[in-house]
Write a structure and sequence with these properties.
- Strand 2 (7-14) and strand 3 (19-25) form a beta hairpin.
- Helices cover 9% and strands 54% of the residues.
- The chain has one helix spanning 96-105; strands at 2-4, 7-14, 19-25, 30-34, 40-47, 50-54, 57-61, 66-69, 75-79, 84-91.
- It is mainly β.
- The protein has one domain (2-105): Jelly Rolls (Sandwich).
- Strands 1-2-3-10-5-8 form a 6-stranded antiparallel sheet, with helices on one face. A 4-stranded antiparallel sheet has the order 4-9-6-7, with no helix packed on it.
Length: 107
């Protein structure tokens, strides 16, 4: 588990084909809109409500909600209020998990 001030990251899978991260966070975490050229970035909301940016649109999803951004698609997310938990999937894994481990290892 990789604790952070806004919640935690728990690596569930780290394979060449898929990276899976359980993430819990509060309203202080804001992931600004960005793109990935090498993988699809998908989210399944487990708890709470999450505001997602998808292209130029914004959508709020609750538990059971799913959203996926293919390579090159603009996306971002943050809590829609209070704590939230998501399962974040990267397909293929594209080394994304290595970045989480490097960031977590910094003092």
């Amino acid at each position: 588990m990789h604790p952070r001030g806004d919640g935690y990251r728990l690596i569930r899978a780290d394979l060449e084909q898929i990276g899976a991260i359980e993430m819990e966070f509060d309203e202080t975490l804001v992931v600004d809109p960005h793109t990935h050229d090498d993988h699809t970035d998908s989210f399944l909301v487990l708890e709470g409500e999450v505001e997602f940016t998808a292209g130029d649109e914004t959508v709020v999803l609750g538990p059971g909600g799913f959203i996926s951004s293919p390579p090159g698609a603009r996306h971002g997310f943050r809590s829609a209020g209070g704590r939230a938990k998501v399962l974040n999937l990267h397909t293929p894994g594209a080394g994304f998990i290595d970045g989480i481990r490097r960031t977590s290892a910094k003092p």
